[in-house]
Amino acid sequence: MDSVKLQELKKTAAEVRLGIVEEVFNAASGHPGGSLSVADIITYLYFAEMNVDPKNPAWDDRDRFVLSKGHTCPALYAALAEKGFFPKEDLKTFRRIDSYLQGHPDKKHIPGIDMSSGSLGQGISAACGMALAGKIQNKDYRVYTVLGDGESQEGQVWEAAMFAAHYKLDNLCAVLDFNGLQIDGKITEVMNPTPLDEKFKAFGWHVICINGHDFEEIEAAFNEAKTVKGKPTLILAATTKGKGVSYMEDKAGWHGKAPNAEEYAQAVEELNAYKATL
Amino acid sequence: MAEKIATREAYGSALAEFGEKYNIIVFDADLAEATKTIKFKKAHPDRFFDCGIAESNMLGVAAGAAAAGMIPFVSSFAMFAAGRAFEQIRNSIGYPHLNVKIGATHAGITVGEDGATHQCLEDLALMRTIPGMVVLNPADAVEARAAVEAAILHDGPVYMRFGRAAVPVLFDQNNYKFEIGKGITLAEGTDVTIAATGVMVEQALIAKELLANDGISARVINCATIKPIDRDLLTAAAQETGCVVTAEEHSVIGGFGSAVAETLSETCPVPVLRVGTNDVFGRSGKVPPLMEMYGLTAANIVEKAKAAVAMKK
User: Fold this and answer.
1) Tell me, what's the pLDDT at B224?
2) Where exactly does CATH 3.40.50.970 map onto chain B?
3) What is B184-312's CATH number?
4) Other CB atoms closer than 10 Å to residue A264's CB: what's the count?
5) In this predicted model, what pLDDT tens digit does every residue of B159-215 receive, in sequence order?
6) Helix or strand or coil: residue B161?
7) Rounded mean pLDDT of A110-118?
């Protein structure tokens, strides 16, 4: 990856993180921790990987994205706004009664949202259906989905994993955001689903393990996924929950809690300071 | 004696037939032989996808395929489609209002010997609570075939309920027209209305004859659409006959009888008595004695009709 592209992606990711903080603070509710952990992956998808058109969100041949861990939509909304699907100003209306920016992704009302999600385990099945439809219709679009690590405790994830491998959905690429924390604590202590790489391999997937905050590793993984034939790819991305906001990092308590005014100011200051170094 | 065909047989035949005319795809969960989607598989193998015994994923996959512009049919037993995958249907299909058609077979007590775990008596109740969901319950093979085509032509999610047991063919395919949301008056009458759905339509027609012997004139309405319910037809019938008996092979809680009672309580409050299973699970057995045991009979409709007429006074 050339240094210009890398700098641009880092700047965009910082904007996405600022958007997340803006959304959750203004709503006084939402899920900042997992949104911040997945921000770099979603930034890469929308600004370097996926073939989408903000002017024509329903374009038939676009690549599809399903946020299976739907509660982290502040990251997705911030990326969509940054990309031009809707005004950035609208992020401040997140979760408000008069806003279209629902608490979880809403396909019917939000430009750029390919699938409603939020009930964990369901998004990956929808992504499988889109990938299968692409195969049936001889379309060459690709389908991307992002899962949470806690989400992998849902049985439906494994039903979908079986389906994707059985129907050889090599146009499907799932990313598992492994930040290691869920609401009740460490995932290995709440209900240990590891080793996830071995489990997905056993289910017939091609598995790539990366640092989910390193754009060069993210790029290499998505490029490798496109070369895999006859099986779906899982990118197991090690991340930090709350990444980019010091007091939220690696704290389960920030899964579903909004910052107060003081905390908000600190988060904005930290992210702006980081942006200034780029 | 009329020819007997299970509505699931008609469903499978209709899928194979309409698969020629429409670009539908079909998913099943290891029950293709029983749901009869096997007929579609044989006719259109490249558009049939077995999902294995994994209904939750199957409904989600169908949602994704619909989101990508396809018209998927999804089949399993009613218990495992409407029951097990209720939340997938609500959140992945209903909420985004995706164009998925759910063909649920083996609904109701007529599952027979498999018993309570497989006899779904709650699916109509579950499905009709989902905003935007169309709920269909055909009475015979002709209506089942027509319902399938109507579902294909309808833009949005549709739940179709089919039975395991062979039932008499009541309608003539040559002059039968199916319209979603419209009930059909099968027989005129002035003293009581019997509003029936699914396999209970046959019992309603028998009940009408039995009531006539006792000098009671019963109107019979077939409601193949549970949602949206035919408000106008039911209201007019309630106004003109003054009391209503509903009949369904389903719990009296939340299903067709509830839908009728809810409607008439708002438009024309008259006595409404419900024939259905009464807050109980089913059990194993042959179909006729099961129908008898759970009161899903013409005789029970007659009894309720007489009680309803008495309540008018």
Assistant:
1) 98
2) 4-168
3) 3.40.50.920
4) 17
5) 999 999 999 999 999 999 999 999 999 999 999 999 999 999 999 999 999 999 999
6) strand
7) 98
Residue in B closest to A58 by C-alpha:
B68
Look up the ipTM and state it: 0.96
Residue B122: what pLDDT? 98
> What integer is the mean pLDDT of A69-98?
98
At residue B229, the 3 state secondary structure works out as: coil
From start to end of chain A, where are the E strands?
A: 64-67, 143-148, 172-178, 181-182, 185-186, 206-211, 233-238
Contact residues for A180 (Cβ-Cβ < 8 A; gap 6+)? A149, A186, A187, A188, A241, A250
Asked if A129's CB is within 8 angstroms of B63's CB, the reply is: yes
Does the distance separating the beta carbons of B92 and A136 come in below 8 Å? no
How many Cβ atoms from other residues are within 10 Å of residue B174's Cβ?
A: 6
Strands ordered across the beta sheet of B101-105: B48-50, B24-28, B71-77, B101-105, B158-161, B134-136, B225-227
**Would you identify the CATH topology of the domain B4-168?**
Rossmann fold (3.40.50)
DSSP-derived secondary structure for A51-84: ---TT-TT-TTS-EEEESSGGGHHHHHHHHHHHT
Question: Is A115 within 8 Å of B91 when comparing Cβ atoms?
Answer: no
Q: What is the CATH number of the domain that holds A19?
A: 3.40.50.970
Q: What's the distance, Cα to Cα, between the start and end of chain A in Å?
A: 16
CATH 3.40.50.920 residue ranges of chain B are 184-312
What is the pLDDT confidence band of residue B2, given thresholds at 50, 70 and 90?
confident
pLDDT of residue B307: 98
Task: Return the half-sphere exposure (C-beta side, CA atoms, 13 A cut-off) of residue B204.
Answer: 32
Provide the 3-class DSSP secondary structure of residue B189.
coil
Q: With contacts defined as CB-CB under 8 Å, which chain B residues touch A155?
A: 56
User: What DSSP designation does B121 have?
Assistant: S
What residues of chain B lie within 8 A of the CB of A119, using their CB?
87, 91-92
B19 and chain A in contact, CB less than 8 A: no
Query: Is the pLDDT reported for residue B1 higher than 70?
Result: no
Which two three-digit tokens encode residue A48?
A: 């370097």
Q: How many domains does chain A have?
A: 1
* Matching residue, tokens 């949104």: A35
Residues A154-197: pLDDT tens digits?
A: 999 999 999 999 999 999 999 999 999 999 999 999 999 999 99
Nearest chain A residue (CA) to B84 = A156
For residue A195, is the peptide bond before it cis, meaning its omega torsion is within 30 degrees of 0? yes
User: Among A115, A137, A166, whose Cβ lies nearest the Cβ of B64?
Assistant: A115
Minimum CA–CA partner of B27 in chain A: A129
Quote the tokens at residue A246: 């010091």
Tell me which residue range forms the domain holding A144.
Answer: 3-276
Active site (catalytic) residues of B? 55
- Which of B52, B56, B69 is the closest to A133 by Cβ? B69
Collapse the DSSP code of A257 into the 3-class scheme (helix H, G, I; strand E, B; otherwise coil) and give the result: coil
Which of A122, A136, A155 is nearest residue B92 as measured by Cβ atoms?
A122
Indicate yes or no: pTM above 0.95.
yes
What CA–CA distance (Å, rounded) separates A63 from A143?
A: 6
| B65 close to B39: Cβ distance less than 8 angstroms | no
Q: Is the pLDDT of residue B227 over 90?
A: yes
